[in-house]
Design brief:
Largest sheet of chain A: 7 strands, mixed
Number of helices of chain A: 13
CATH topology of the largest domain in chain B: Alpha-Beta Plaits
CATH superfamily of the largest domain in chain A: Type I PLP-dependent aspartate aminotransferase-like (Major domain)
Distance between the termini of chain A: 56 Å
Number of strands of chain B: 6
Oligomer: heterodimer
Structural class of chain B: alpha+beta
Shape of chain A: globular
CATH superfamily of the largest domain in chain B: Lrp/AsnC effector binding domain/regulation of amino acid metabolism (RAM) domain
Radius of gyration of chain B: 21 Å
Order of helices and strands of chain B: HHHEHEEHEEE
CATH class of the largest domain in chain B: Alpha Beta
Chain lengths: 394, 160
């Protein structure tokens, strides 16, 4: 059968994620030391796992309500109030989803009409473009720049807006660059969004991972933005709960209602066990978040310092758990750099181009690894960079 | 808790340069700080955590409960000092509860430890009774997993 003629042309036009390629090479090789994984190396804190187990012991194995358990919705609402000073009704403005990714997909499918333009700053997580395309939208990419510390600038946003623009995706703290947006940055962006009547999809999944006493600011807390922002967040990064698959969306009642309808038909409800665990996370997990943040922070400093020291300049990332060093001084492209690094030194990092074309000249290095592991990997990268220098001087 | 001490207590093998980077302090400051802790006796020494069970030339350890009569002048301190003096004794803790001291005692064989208790420990003036618990296996020691390499294998898979 000619299957391609049976399948949707949009999905067939989307290429597979560029992070994969190097992982496939790494899998074939022994003795590979990876800095490519984008999830916490910590296990979910025990008291959180224990609540999940306890719920199973009690036989709580049924569906939850479509939106999520009332206790969890309430805790999420309390949390956004407590941490980011934004008030959402747990009853009408909160939806629990299967990871933040589902929430992003739902938002796009609810908001986008065919031909609507969605502005996506890059480098950024790989899902925004494909999900926009699948929802019938047109992705419009803005390249953030090293010299701006990869923050989104109001002028660049303004230049990308047309009369078709509907949504701005705001992916901060950012994967892969580690960039954050501070209040003054957001205020400039907010002014443009209000002026052009844009909606904002604010992906705040790394909101607990910011460093240097710069607490995450949600754009929803800025004047005139609450009514035009859909906040995406979840438990994966902040509580090391990736495998539990639990996220949520917060936003205007009308939009959340449509997203809930789609979620209800497509997914029904998020995993029950995970929801019980998540209630415990929000109630008693602050100390775990603090501990993990402080561990990541030490690693972050070590890794940034090492890259700068070996001559690969690296702006100071203030969020997430990635550094994004510039490798242009080696004369190699991102792809060449990563391929040679894995072949010659058996170290896996991800080329910046996996997160958008403007990522060329950079690589993403995850520091979600033990200090011991990081030290070995950094030593190998240092040797590789030294050898490249010798090669270039020959 | 002091972050420098926390780091060193987990792994004393970091260079001062690495510690300086991790804590965001100048290396000279870190060097001086470590020196000061050493001089003050806050840092007592640097030891490797060894999984002796993997070594053939091994030893036996026991936890000894000790009930004693405290001395009028010196309380429990004098008894603690006497216990500490034995090279067989690895650790001495004053306890709250049904007994007064917990000792960790090390010997080449169980017989060694039994003899030590019978001849040296229980004969100390002021010792009322002893209770001996032999340590059969160490699963976790000083915060480290000695049992299995569960924590070492990276089971994470690449998703996207």
């Amino acid at each position: 059968m000619e299957y391609s003629s049976y399948m949707n042309s949009s999905i067939q036009s989307i290429s597979p994620s560029g992070i994969r390629k190097f992982f496939d090479i790494a899998n074939e090789m022994k003795d590979v030391i990876s800095l490519s994984i984008g999830e916490p190396d910590f296990q979910t804190p025990w008291h959180i796992r224990d609540e999940g187990i306890h719920s199973l012991e009690k036989g709580k194995t049924w569906y939850s309500p479509n939106r999520g358990f009332a206790d969890l919705l309430q805790e999420i609402s309390n949390y956004y109030q407590r941490r980011f000073d934004v008030t959402y009704s747990p009853v009408t403005q909160t939806l629990v989803t299967v990871g933040g990714s589902e929430a992003i997909d739902l938002a796009f499918r609810v908001l986008i009409e065919k031909g609507d333009e969605v502005i996506i700053p890059q480098p950024s997580f790989v899902c925004y473009v494909p999900l926009t395309v699948m929802a019938g939208g047109i992705p419009v990419v803005i390249n953030t720049k090293n010299e701006d510390n990869f923050r989104l600038k109001a002028d660049d946003l303004r230049a990308a807006i047309t009369d078709k623009t509907k949504i701005l995706v705001l992916p901060f703290p950012n994967n892969p660059t580690g960039a954050i947006m501070e209040r003054h940055d957001l205020e400039e962006i907010a002014a443009v969004c209000r002026e052009h009547d844009l909606l904002v999809l604010s992906d705040e999944i790394y909101s607990e991972l910011t460093y240097g006493n710069r607490d995450h600011v949600s754009i929803a807390s800025i004047e005139g933005m609450y009514e035009r922002t859909i906040v995406i967040n979840g438990f994966s990064k902040s509580y090391a709960m990736t495998g539990w698959r639990l996220g949520y969306a917060l936003g205007p009642e009308e939009i959340i209602a449509q997203m809930t309808k789609l979620h209800q038909y497509g997914i029904m409800s998020a995993p029950t066990t995970a929801q019980y665990a998540a209630i415990e996370a929000l109630k008693n997990g602050d100390k775990d978040v603090k501990h993990m943040r402080s561990e990541y922070d030490m690693r972050r400093r070590l890794v940034v310092d090492s890259f700068n020291d070996m001559g690969l300049s690296c702006f100071e990332p203030l969020g997430a758990f990635y550094v994004f060093p510039c490798i242009k001084s080696t004369g190699l492209s991102s792809d060449e750099f990563c391929t040679r690094l894995i072949m010659e030194k058996h170290v896996a990092v991800v080329p910046g181009t996996a997160f958008g074309e403007c990522g060329d000249g950079f690589v993403r290095v995850s520091y979600s690894y033990s200090l011991k592991h990081l030290k070995i990997a950094l030593q190998r990268i240092r040797e590789f960079v030294e050898e490249l220098k010798d090669e270039n001087n020959r | 808790m002091d972050k420098l001490l926390q780091l060193l207590s987990k792994n004393s093998q970091f260079t001062t340069g690495e510690i300086a980077a991790m804590l965001g302090e100048p290396e000279d400051y870190i060097k001086a700080q470590i020196k000061e802790y050493e001089n003050q006796g806050v840092i007592k020494g640097y030891q490797a955590v060894i999984n002796w069970e993997d070594i053939e030339d091994s030893y036996v350890e026991a936890l000894i409960e000790l009930k004693v009569t405290p001395k009028k002048e010196t309380g429990f301190d004098e008894m603690a000092k006497r216990c500490m003096a034995f090279e067989e004794v690895e650790a001495v803790y004053l306890m709250a509860g049904v007994y007064d001291f917990a000792l960790i005692v090390r010997g080449e064989t169980m017989q060694d430890i039994a003899m030590f208790i019978a001849k040296k420990l229980s004969t100390i003036d002021g010792v009322i009774s002893t209770g001996t618990h032999f340590i059969m296996r160490r699963y976790k020691d000083r915060g480290m997993n000695l049992f299995c390499d569960d924590n070492q294998a990276d089971e994470r898979s690449l998703i996207l």
